[in-house]
Amino acid sequence: MLAGVAHAQTSSPIITAADMPAANDSLRLSQAATLPASAPPLTRNGANQTWNYAGLVPASQRVESYFDLSTVTDFTLQFTFNNPLSATNRATLVAPRSLPLPAGTTFPVPITNPLEFVNGSSADFRSVGYGATLNGTTLPVTYASRAQQDVIYRFPLSFGSAADVSNSLLTTPAIVASTGFFSQKRQRTTQPDAWGTLTTPFGTFQTVRVVATLLDHDSLSIGGAPGQGLDLPLVRQYKWLANGVHVPVLTITTTTAAGQEVVTGAEYRDSYRRVVPLATRGAAGVEFGTAPNPSAVGTELRLLVPAGTGPLTVQATDLVGRRVFSRAFSSSAGGVLTLEAAAFGAYRGMLLLAVQTAQGTSTRRVVRE
What we know:
Elements: E1 26-32, E2 46-52, E3 58-65, H1 75-81, E4 93-96, E5 111-120, E6 124-134, E7 137-143, E8 150-154, E9 164-171, E10 180-200, E11 203-222, E12 228-231, E13 234-241, E14 250-257, E15 260-269, E16 289-291, E17 301-304, E18 312-317, E19 323-329, E20 336-339, H2 341-344, E21 349-357, E22 360-368
Parallel strand pairs: 2-10
Antiparallel strand pairs: 1-3, 1-15, 4-5, 5-6, 6-7, 6-8, 7-9, 9-10, 10-11, 11-12, 11-13, 13-14, 14-15, 16-17, 17-20, 18-19, 18-21, 21-22
């Protein structure tokens, strides 16, 4: 219903608290496997731009929901995030969302019912903490102080707004230190760098684009073991914001490693669409697996293909469709093929492996760390 035709506009939209998520929002978002070949370069910025991403094809969908604090029945979380006597961690909305743990982290006991608490005001939109159930006990995870919360947007926001920098520190409570400890130190820089007309499969919108640059340092300890510090690769989020949409119309995420910026995700506001799972799209019966996935630079990748598949071609592309390599193989009696590390070079980020046989083509995501 939000899809519409853009009207002529001579200045940047102004984003305020009214354009942020609200209680009872259920917003459908589609994730694209690749950017269309005709996608404009991310370097396109400045005033009165035109971005055409109508060729985006959804590979999956999710629904992002927000609720009023009254829906949280746990006393500990209410006391932490809805305490009338303290504004430090006061939240206005809660959303089901996992804790920002490093990829592949496994705690000795399960973490269930994860929630993120956010505060929206006329001044800004910020994360104030998380809540989860650990081994049957509800635990709040908060920032070190109000000044060290993750400020996502400051208002009003437009093309003329100055860059904003927030430094946040999120930590798990000391009571769970013997089970596991996690902290995230983040510097978020938000820079409006363009405005103009954006077209996606959902519609055409007048937008302001902001680029959020995230520098994260995570510390992690499991089961009382010595903590491990992790400097994560630099992440940029290119986000197009429009009045009344409540979430970015389009977000393109990149990761920079070894000096190379690589697209690792594309997500856009959308309506319901029937999505065929990526691993089976057009496969005509061909299924395959990859191991290890994710894999580290310098390691080989094993391709697990059904025995007797016959001759096949494996092609790897990045998310904007640029070919990284292509390999041809004869039939494999054992069903296991090895892609040598040299085939990937120094590439880091997400790749799409397409395996083509006489039966059809199957595609799968592979992460190269």
